Structure to design on (200 residues):
């Protein structure tokens, strides 16, 4: 029988992070830290309702350095392991650079993170109808891979970073500005996490 699962949630950036915002004339400015925090809050509530232990890595509103985030995650993973749990980390972000759609990132190569990333990508079309699910299938799966994200390479558990649409594309902006859009994104993450838990 596999060990129970503990989920750690990292909401990217903070209120003092420069940039990381929308700039559509006449429309309310959308700050990435606020989007990430709101989605993570919703994921937390849904996981708690489902009986899945979870914790936020950064409860603060201000930004916390990547190095400190990694220290916190690894401390949480070690504590969870001592209590008999295995862990996963999901780092929630919003994208920019005038694209559109959803992405899931892991570190390079075949890793333990790939299965959760694939489950998130599999869940995405149901919750993000009309949006592209942006994949890289050159290595046989759909997650995008990079070793540039320390939160993925230096943490001690499977870790996935999600890019939840593009703040600087109007269609995406309207979706992630709305309560319904954020609920859909939270439910997508939770559906995948629950599937992952059942697969252990």
């Amino acid at each position: 029988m596999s060990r129970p699962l503990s989920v750690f949630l990292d909401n990217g950036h903070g209120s003092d992070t420069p940039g990381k915002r929308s700039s559509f004339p006449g429309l309310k400015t959308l700050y990435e830290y606020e989007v990430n925090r709101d989605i993570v809050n919703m994921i937390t509530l849904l996981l708690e309702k489902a009986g899945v232990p979870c914790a936020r890595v950064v409860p603060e509103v201000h930004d916390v350095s990547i190095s400190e985030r990694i220290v916190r995650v690894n401390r949480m993973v070690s504590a969870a392991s001592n209590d008999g749990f295995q862990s996963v980390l999901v780092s929630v972000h919003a994208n920019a650079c005038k694209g559109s759609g959803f992405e899931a990132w892991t570190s390079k190569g075949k890793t333990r993170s790939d299965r959760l990333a694939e489950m998130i990508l599999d869940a995405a079309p149901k919750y993000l109808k009309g949006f592209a699910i942006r994949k890289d299938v050159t290595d046989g799966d759909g997650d995008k891979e990079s070793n540039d994200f320390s939160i993925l390479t230096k943490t001690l558990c499977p870790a996935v970073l999600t890019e939840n649409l593009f703040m600087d594309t109007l269609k995406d902006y309207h979706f992630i500005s709305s309560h319904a859009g954020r609920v859909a994104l939270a439910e997508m993450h939770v559906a995948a996490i629950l599937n992952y838990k059942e697969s252990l």
About this structure: The chain has a mean pLDDT of 97. Strands lie at 5-11, 54-56, 86-95, 102-106, 144-145, 159-166. The chain has one domain: 5-199.
